[in-house]
């Protein structure tokens, strides 16, 4: 709020900072509690993330279902421009929540010792969230959020099931993971990158005329440089998606062929084996031990 002629006047976007601060603190406190109990409940961190992705995906559905710029491939009419230089105020709260979640994720990635590619992913994601808001790409950002969150619901379910011995449920979720990632994170995401790369700011409405972009210079070369950087960051995410998808295929192949696999996508060191194979191995070990004991006894008796 600011005082103007002895009256309080709401400044657009300022009130949302409260949602950002409160959400960030809530994420940090809840995640800290979940990580503290991870030894007793190893699936806890993944269930925490899955609950977030389900909740935010619902929020995104409510926000986007009636938007006239939602692409037809996502069930929208696709009548208005998806990539457009304007500041969509109705997406402010969604952006603040997403920024809070990914900021807390970046912090805990450092604390739990995540792999280098996870740190790169968090850094790029934070830059894209801030950059898409400042450059007027909020519509595109909302669609990118949706593509990631929907596929992450299945991804976190796989990671949670990986901590159990429910092989059937895990394989079902794994197949859904491959399908959702291939469609959302590889195919549709690459199409969005093409739209951003081909977008040209209209000369009559340069980015600097938008309130959130008023601090930007409006000369074409400067704006195109920012746009190029934005495309490079999106391509970096796409490369990471392809890399992780390859890891998923590798882990699935090892599990199907060798009867066991290891989560190598983030930080987990748990090895999963076929349950029947494990029981057979235990039975074999027990019988071998019993046989050895009986043979030893017979030798002593002799």
Radius of gyration: 25 Å
Question: What value does the average pLDDT take?
Answer: 76
Major sheet details: 2 strands, antiparallel
Helix and strand sequence: EEHHHHHHHEEH
Main structural class: mainly alpha
Outline type: globular
User: What's the total number of strands?
Assistant: 4
Structural overview:
- This protein is mainly α.
- The chain contains eight helices and four strands; from the N terminus they run E-E-H-H-H-H-H-H-H-E-E-H.
- The strands form two sheets. The protein has a two-stranded antiparallel sheet. The chain has a two-stranded antiparallel ribbon with strand order 3-4.
- A hairpin with an 8-residue loop joins strand 3 and strand 4 (271-273).
- Helix 1 packs parallel to helix 3 (92-111), helix 2 runs antiparallel to helix 5 and helix 3 runs antiparallel to helix 4.
- The chain is globular.
- The relative contact order is 0.09.
Which helices and strands appear, and what pairs or packs with what?
Elements: E1 2-4, E2 7-9, H1 16-36, H2 44-64, H3 92-111, H4 116-134, H5 138-162, H6 167-198, H7 220-258, E3 260-262, E4 271-273, H8 275-301
Antiparallel strand pairs: 1-2, 3-4
List keywords for this structure.
302 residues; mainly alpha; 8 helices; globular; disordered N terminus; disordered C terminus
Summarize the structure.
By secondary structure, this protein is mainly alpha-helical. It has helices at residues 16-36, 44-64, 92-111, 116-134, 138-162, 167-198, 220-258, 275-301, and strands spanning 2-4, 7-9, 260-262, 271-273. Helix 3 (92-111) packs antiparallel against helix 4.
């Amino acid at each position: 709020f600011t005082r103007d002629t002895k009256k309080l006047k709401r400044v657009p976007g300022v009130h949302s900072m409260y949602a950002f601060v409160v959400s960030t603190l809530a994420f940090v406190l809840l995640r800290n509690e979940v990580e503290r109990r991870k030894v007793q409940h190893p699936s806890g961190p993944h269930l925490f993330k899955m609950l977030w992705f389900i909740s935010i995906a619902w929020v995104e559905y409510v926000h986007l279902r009636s938007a006239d710029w939602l692409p037809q491939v996502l069930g929208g009419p696709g009548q208005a421009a998806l990539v457009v230089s304007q500041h969509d105020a109705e997406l402010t709260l969604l952006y603040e929540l997403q920024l809070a979640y990914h900021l807390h994720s970046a912090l805990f990635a450092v604390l739990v010792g995540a792999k280098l590619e996870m740190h790169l992913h968090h850094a790029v994601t934070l830059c894209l969230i801030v950059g898409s808001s400042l450059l007027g790409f909020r519509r595109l950002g909302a669609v990118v959020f949706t593509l990631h969150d929907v596929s992450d619901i299945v991804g976190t379910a796989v990671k949670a099931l990986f901590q159990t011995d429910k092989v059937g449920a895990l394989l079902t979720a794994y197949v859904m993971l491959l399908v959702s990632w291939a469609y959302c994170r590889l195919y549709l995401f690459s199409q969005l990158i093409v739209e951003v790369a081909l977008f040209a700011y209209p000369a009559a409405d340069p980015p600097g005329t938008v309130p959130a972009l008023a601090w930007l210079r409006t000369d074409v070369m400067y704006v195109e440089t920012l746009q190029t950087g934005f495309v490079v960051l999106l391509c970096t995410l796409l490369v990471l998606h392809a890399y992780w998808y390859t890891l998923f295929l590798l882990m699935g192949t090892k599990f199907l062929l060798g009867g066991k696999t290891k989560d190598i996508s983030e930080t987990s060191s748990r090895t999963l084996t076929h349950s029947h194979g494990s029981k057979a191995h235990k039975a074999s070990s027990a019988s071998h031990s019993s046989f050895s004991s009986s043979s030893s006894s017979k030798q002593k008796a002799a």
